Amino acid sequence: MNKVAALFVQTGGVYWNLDGVDPWDEMRDARLYAGTYRVVAHPPCERWGRYWSGGPSAHEVCTLGDDGGCFAAALSAVRRWGGILEHPEGSHAWRAFDLNLPPRHGGWVVADWQGGWTCCIEQGAYGHRARKATWLYSCHVELPSLKWGRAPGDFIRLDEGFH
Length: 163
Known about the structure:
Elements: E1 4-7, E2 21-24, E3 38-41, H1 70-81, E4 83-88, H2 93-96, E5 109-110, E6 116-122, E7 133-139
Parallel strand pairs: 1-2, 1-3, 3-4
Antiparallel strand pairs: 4-7, 5-6, 6-7
């Protein structure tokens, strides 16, 4: 079995106690991952998404991309060891790191000049309770065929309280 490092994951979450998975939570600090397994990276998105500033009711001043280097570390690990990185659709990190934006309708497209590929999927097509459009970045792995386009069915809206 090939082992995978799951970076920036929740303690006790879905990657925990899975055979062949080496989980890196906040306590282990995934920014320090030094290889050698391929990675599945879920870097924090709070400072890269639509509400990076904290939203209209924020009580503190936030800075776009201020994630302590988490996205940069995740991208570097995927480029070095191979694997995949996941971030919300519309992530400002794509432009900040000179990655091509994936088409909303799906399909893998060249992401950069370092062998990376990117695409857009909806997690609702894979069982999530909301459509939750998501961008993926992958490097040095065989690209899978995914469920492209709008996920069929009725879904809750994320702005109605489910996250």
